[in-house]
Amino acid sequence: MGRYILLIVLFLSLNQIPAMAKERFDYEKTGKITWEVKTNEKMVAITFDDGPNPVYTPEILDVLSKHKAKATFFVVGKHANNYPEIIRREVLEGHEIANHTFNHLNIIRDSQKLENEIIQTSDALKEITGFSPTLFRPVGGSYNDVIINTAAENGYHVVLWSWHQDTKDWKNPGVNTITKRVISGIKPGNIILFHDSGGNRTQTIRALDRILTKLEKEGYEFVTVSEMLFRTHTTQNN
């Protein structure tokens, strides 16, 4: 009896895979979500979620500056209000600021609530920097029509990350693990996910330095998400 139950569970699990793949494919082919870009240029986009943090974000900025690397920061609106000077430094040093909701809420059904979160963050960032961002990353990487349409209606493009480039640094798995996770699967056009807040990010900072050093030697360039999208689009149209 147990054997038959196991077979049924396996069958149902396998049947879930095509549906999930099709869902991503459908969104990807219409350009409604970006997970990564197709390019032969050796460039990648490093992204950070959940900041700014008064301790770890400045240290991350120091590492990025050391390697002349640009990154995209998906910031939480309430944190931006608390530490506007860090946001200004990010902009001054050539990094991209993007929207990650105001209260770090994973909203998948309530379009009005999600819109309020997006607008609050947009307004906060415009007050701090003088302009509103154009990229939005849903909390937890959740995506559906409610999220995508709400973002689009407010002038945002949804950006997630390469599935194999989730560092899972929030788990503090160790510097070597974070480093290997990125380096082992790196490809041109990848979007890499880190976090600069939400816990102790000492491992993230140390791993980031190692990763940038290694990828520099391999000839990689570190650009913002918008620059990578622009350069890829320009190349494809030439």
The computed structural class is alpha/beta
How are helices and strands ordered from N to C?
HEEHEHHEHEHEHEHEH
Number of strands: 8
Helix amount: 40-55%
Distance between the termini: 61 Å
CATH superfamily grouping: Glycoside hydrolase/deacetylase
How many domains? The number is 1
Poorly predicted runs are 6-22
Number of helices: 9
CATH topology value: TIM Barrel
Features:
238 residues, alpha/beta, TIM Barrel, 5-stranded parallel beta sheet, 3-stranded parallel beta sheet, 9 helices, 8 strands
Provide a concise account of the structure shown.
The chain is of the alpha/beta class and 238 residues long.
Would you write up a description of this structure?
- The protein contains 9 helices and 8 strands.
- It is α/β, with parallel strands linked by helices and 238 residues long.
- The longest helix is centred in the N-terminal third of the chain and has 28 residues, at 2-29.
- It has helices at residues 2-29, 56-66, 77-82, 84-92, 111-129, 145-153, 175-183, 202-217, 225-237; strands at residues 33-34, 43-49, 71-75, 96-99, 135-136, 157-159, 191-195, 221-222.
- It has one domain (41-237): TIM Barrel (Alpha-Beta Barrel).
Write the layout of secondary structure elements.
Blueprint: H1 2-29, E1 33-34, E2 43-49, H2 56-66, E3 71-75, H3 77-82, H4 84-92, E4 96-99, H5 111-129, E5 135-136, H6 145-153, E6 157-159, H7 175-183, E7 191-195, H8 202-217, E8 221-222, H9 225-237
Parallel strand pairs: 1-6, 2-3, 2-7, 2-8, 3-4, 5-6
Helix pairs in contact: 2-8, 5-6, 7-8
